[in-house]
Design brief:
It is a single chain. The chain has about 180 residues and is mainly alpha-helical. The protein has one domain. It has 9 helices and no strands. α1 runs antiparallel to α8 and α3 crosses α8. The longest helix has 22 residues.
Length: about 180
Amino acid sequence: MMERRDLIRWLAATAGVHAVQAFAPAELLAVGRAVHRRAASGAEFTPFGHVQRTVVIAAERILPGATEANVGVFIDKMLADWHTPEERARLLAGLDDLDARCRASAGRDFVNCAEAEQVAVLTSLDNEVTALRAGPGNERAGGNQHWFAMLKFLTVYGWCTSETGMRALGLYPLASRYDGCAPV
C-alpha cells in the first residue's frame, strides 16, 4: 500500500507543475489542504459553464469520487492562484481539443458524450502522455507539459488532499502536534 507521502512525492515527480516541484511532501499536502479551504467557484471558469462542466466530468472519469471531493473547484482555484497564464491557456486549449476529438468521433461535445465515449477519449489522451514520457531523450518533460498531464495531476492532487480523499485513504483526520513538555 502506498503511503500518503510517497503518493504526493510521486505526484510532484510526474506532474511537471513548476510552482510545486520544489516542495517537500508535507508542504505539498499543506498547500493542497489550504487550496481546498480557500477554494471558491468561478475563479477561472464561469460557474456551471461549459468549461467547468467539462473539467468536473473529466475529473470524475479520471478518478471516480472527484466530484464528491470538489476537485473541479480545487482545479479552478489552482489555475487561478498557482499556474501561469501560459499554463492556464494550455489547459483551456486542451479542453477545446477534448471537445474537438469528441465531436470528430461521436458528433457531440465531451459533456454530452456517453460515459464509455468519455472514458475512451481520456484513455487515448493518457496513452499519448505515456508515449511522450517513454520516448527517448528528454521526452519525459514533453509528456509533463501536455495539458492532459496537468489535468490528471490536478485531479489526483485535489482528491488526495480533500477530506473525502483522505478519509478514503484512511488518513483523516490528520495527526496534530503533541508537545508533552509544554508549559501550562
